[in-house]
Write a structure and sequence with these properties.
Elements (H helix, E strand, L loop, with lengths): L14 E2 H7 L5 H9 L3 E3 L2 E2 L5 E2 L4 E4 L2 E10 L3 E6 L29 E3 L7 E7 L2 H8 L7 E8 L4 H9 L1 E3 L2 E3 L3 E4 L10 E8 L6 H7 L4 E10 L2 E2 L9 E3 L2 H10 L6 E8 L20 H11 L2 H16 L7 H12 L18 E3 L2 E3 L31 H8 L16
Parallel strand pairs: 9-15
Antiparallel strand pairs: 1-4, 2-3, 2-5, 5-6, 6-18, 7-9, 7-17, 8-9, 10-14, 10-15, 11-12, 13-14, 15-16, 19-20
């Protein structure tokens, strides 16, 4: 395989049949499910059913075409986005609010998947990737990927309440707790009623950080996520900007959740050759339009012979009774025969006789004795048999020069050139 190729062959886990076919571009997942339920898809020469999984090496037949299931390595992309307040983590918001996907680069043949969600009032780190396997693994509670937040809490925070949050409290959707709670120091510090804390969770339920503090009668008025697994915000990550992770950083994220170093997926490779179930001579006469296409072309463009007939009729109306198609051989010749001038052939053709040529409107006389006649243009001839001078008005200058002498003074008192 080429070095610049996007995919390399690797091993991949089995996947659902409709998912593999949809990612290969054979249709939508919902439409392909209907095709599978109707028995239009076979896997290894057996009719497939809904829920069927395929793996590398299987052969699929669909619409008289055969495909091999192959595993390939995908060059995934992962971004770290510093989400500002006021954006929602959804692709399309019915209320028209801005989304985190509005600022991301456009993709072709892939889509951005948000690893977890942040509500509209929460800021900070949001991971977006094209690796669906990585996104599912990082969000699954069984992998226990830690999420670190910095929050500002309003109220009287006692050590008993902090210990209660570490041990766990009962929420509406089950028990929950912080694995670590640490008071912030340095520039953030504490003020009168607002207190800053770093907290860590191993799951990501809806508004879990805020509900945990509310369970001990405290309210969160600022919340920012600063770390998700091995990915964390840095001082260079400005608000509302994204940073793309390197291949090594993406590899670390996958290894932390127990995945292989590289993203893999199953895809289809079409087999070359004649289609399944077609006769061997089905390609005979390939390239000719079908009867339906010929009929469609006739309705849209008309018959070819009729089109040329209409063109000839239009040209006949434009040029009169003369046949437009025979202008070079007939009409032009007839016009020249009626407009022949002295010294020309009446048929408008070139003469091949000695010393006589006819070039349409220019008639050249006998040149065999050193004379050149220009009957049409009115060129005179020199009496001594030489080349005639070109007159300006009907040969008058030729006549004046023939009767004048160069040795004497010119008219007007000017002398001629000395010899």
């Amino acid at each position: 395989m080429r070095k610049n190729a996007q995919y390399t062959e690797v091993k991949a886990a089995p996947e659902r049949l409709q998912k593999v076919m949809a990612e290969a571009g054979l249709g939508s997942r919902r439409g392909l499910e209907n095709e599978i339920a109707a028995g239009e898809v076979t896997v290894n020469s057996k009719v497939a059913s809904l829920g069927h999984k395929v793996q590398a090496g299987d052969r699929i037949e669909y619409r008289q075409r055969r495909y091999d299931v192959i595993a390939r390595q995908l060059d995934a992309r992962t971004l770290v986005y510093n989400k500002p307040e006021g954006e929602v983590t959804t692709r399309q918001d019915p209320e028209g609010r801005p989304t985190v996907f509005d600022r991301l680069p456009r993709l072709q043949g892939a889509r951005w998947i948000a690893v977890g969600r942040l509500d509209i009032n929460t800021t900070g780190l949001l991971i977006l990737t094209t690796d669906g396997e990585l996104a599912n693994a990082m969000m699954h509670p069984s992998n226990q990927i830690d999420r670190e937040y910095v929050c500002r809490v309003w109220g009287d925070v006692s050590d008993e309440k902090i210990e209660q949050l570490r041990q766990g409290v009962e929420l509406e959707d089950g028990p929950a707790r912080f694995t670590d709670v640490e008071a912030a120091t340095g520039d953030i510090g504490r003020d009168s009623r607002n207190h800053w804390f770093y907290v860590v969770l191993l799951e990501g339920r809806n508004r879990e950080v805020r509900r945990l503090w509310e369970a001990v009668d405290l309210q969160v008025n600022r919340l920012k996520r600063v770390r998700y697994g091995a990915a964390q915000l840095t001082a260079q990550d400005r608000l509302g900007r994204y940073r793309e992770l390197h291949a090594k950083e993406h590899k670390i994220l996958r290894e932390d959740v127990g995945l292989s170093a590289h993203a893999t997926h199953l895809t289809l490779e079409a087999l070359k050759g004649r289609r399944v179930g077609r006769p061997q001579n089905a390609n005979k006469g390939r390239g000719r339009p079908s009867a339906q296409r010929q009929e469609r072309n006739a309705r849209s463009h008309g018959n070819t012979s009729d089109r040329y007939t209409r063109r000839d009729e239009q040209r006949e109306q434009q040029y009169g009774d003369n046949d437009y198609g025979n202008r070079r051989g007939g009409e032009r010749q007839d016009r020249r025969s009626h407009s022949a001038k002295p010294g020309q052939r009446s048929d408008g053709q070139r003469s091949h006789g000695r010393g006589d040529k006819n070039y349409g409107d220019k008639s050249y006389g006998n040149r065999g004795h050193g004379e050149r006649g220009h009957s049409e243009r009115g060129y005179g001839q020199r009496n001594d048999g030489g080349r005639s001078a070109k007159p300006s008005r009907g040969g008058e200058r030729n006549d004046r020069r023939a009767n004048s002498s160069r040795t004497g003074p010119r008219p007007g008192g000017r002398k001629g050139f000395k010899r």
